[in-house]
Design goal:
single chain, 221 residues, alpha/beta, Rossmann fold, Arc Repressor Mutant, subunit A, 2 domains, six-stranded parallel β-sheet, 13% strand, elongated
């Protein structure tokens, strides 16, 4: 199959290319950052895309966000995420559609070559390949919907807890008002606050849940 690989570690990137080539696959592009991954996938339209989670510039969840961006732009994309650790942010969104063609494995699984290659085939065929550690982590998070929020959504909610309006939140985070409104709607949805409730009522309930979970009003400066 034709594959795009993204990892900021040159050693691992080249190692993956060698492993895939020996298995009979064709690596059509290999890049070292999230934007490069998105561009390469949308340009080459590969059978499968493999992306590391932690990449420049912040080395947090750029790869996972890039995977989500690819799936939004190309619904048929087959994406396998690799990570040294379980990074929960954006993972729910990547897996939310239930359409398959996605995978999330810890990098340790790459050393189990046969299983790793089987996972590639599963994802390329439209299935889902999840590391057992990832499954346990994500299932554990279901008990606290606040943990399903992305880092940005938590920032928005923290500012809401300070009593700031959407416009004030947008100014503080240097984003558009429309962007803040989109984040608030996602926050309400993840917290299970019904869309037919009054907007201000949902806002209060979201803040109450945040503060009840230990959030600190005024902590975001």
């Amino acid at each position: 199959m034709r594959i795009v690989v993204a990892d900021d570690s040159v050693l691992l990137r080249e190692g993956l290319q060698l492993l895939l080539a020996e298995a009979g696959h064709d690596v059509v592009a290999a890049v070292g950052d999230g934007p490069g991954f998105v561009d390469a996938v949308l340009e080459h339209r590969p059978d499968l895309a493999i992306v590391d989670v932690r990449m420049p510039p912040s080395h947090t969840d750029e790869g996972l966000r890039a995977a989500v961006a690819v799936r939004r732009a190309w619904a048929g994309a087959r994406v396998l995420v690799l990570s040294q650790y379980v990074v929960a942010s954006y993972a729910d969104e990547l897996l939310a559609t239930g359409e398959g063609g996605v995978g999330y494995l810890l990098k340790d699984r790459v050393s189990e070559v046969a299983e790793f290659l089987d996972a590639l085939v599963t994802v390329q065929a439209g299935g889902t390949a999840l590391d057992p550690m990832v499954v346990r982590h994500l299932m554990g998070r279901r008990h606290d919907p606040l943990l399903a929020l992305t880092p940005r959504e938590r920032e928005v909610l923290a500012l809401m807890a300070e009593g700031r309006s959407n416009a004030a939140v947008a100014e503080a985070l240097v984003v558009s008002l429309a962007g803040v409104e989109k984040h608030t709607q996602r926050i309400f949805a993840k917290l299970g606050l019904a869309p037919d409730d009054d907007q201000s009522h949902r806002r209060v309930l979201a803040v109450v849940r945040y503060l009840s979970a230990g959030g600190q009003a005024g902590s975001s400066g």
